Amino acid sequence: MKATYMFGAGDVRVIDAPMPVIQQPADAIVRTVRACVCGSDLHPYHSLPTTEEGLSMGHELIAVVEEVGAEVKTLTKGDFVVVPFAFSDNTCVFCQEGMHTACVHGGWYGTPQAAGLQAEYARIPQADGSAVIVPGVDPETASDDLLASLLALSDVYLTGFHAAYMAQIKPGQTVAVVGDGAVGLSAVLAAKQLGADTVILMGRHESRTDLGREWGATHVVAERGAEGIAKVMEITNGEGAHAVLEAVGHMPAYEQSYGIVRPGGVISRVGVPQYEEAPIGFGSLFGKNARLAGGPAPVRAYLEDAIRQVLDGTINPGKVFDRVVSIDDVPAAYAAMDSRESLKVMVDPSL
Q: What does the pLDDT read at residue 66?
């Protein structure tokens, strides 16, 4: 079985790995229909220490169920499923409160608990609580556009949606999105779905911001830092944005966010923060009565509704994918996303 491993910064390889097997009675084994490379995969791509064993990569997947463990009740062989980027039981107290990424029996892919999902086959722990069936769709005959949009639900779109949801966006509000990557663009789409009137996309890559405009951005601000803050304040008549959706994870993006949030507003972060310490005092959050929200998206909490929206054509989040590669070409996909030649790359194991 082919699988993607990272052996150090910039060193991505496709290797022959053992076929996954049922390890726990709640597991399922699935065959990959589509996987992809995530912007968060680029963090270790820049910084992972060199190792001989390598790090199993990937956490976004749509797949067909091949085998289920003895305790799996909701899935059977042949089911077509969306697999969220974190696994969860969907029954613990945190799952019931909608925080599946804090599941007491959950975890992450690409860890000792579960191998990564940029592979031809994968083991899905807590399969009943994690994988969600796509009703009435045959992946063998489904359109590429439909498969792309379903794949986007495993992480990227619903991470953008989580940013908007945690910001409690209300109809008529002004929303600023910091970052024109795939998650930022997804946040634009989600903000419009929740009724935002003005959506300001802060990004400077025209091919990306064009999609942002298609998805509902009313303004694009290419400037950064103090100039970017001034531009947003000009657009908002000096008031700032009710909600700032930060989809980058680096300190300059956070600084830009607290510079443009309006008094009483909220900053919702879904870009994985590459820092632990950040300003929260009078000049950043406290003086504005601004709130800080966001975190790892509990994709499982949103999946059923999002699948229905994709199937009925309400949303088409798969437009974030601008390149498709075979699994053998995954290392080139990392390089293309790192150099910004590609926005987000899909992996089709059948190629």
A: 98
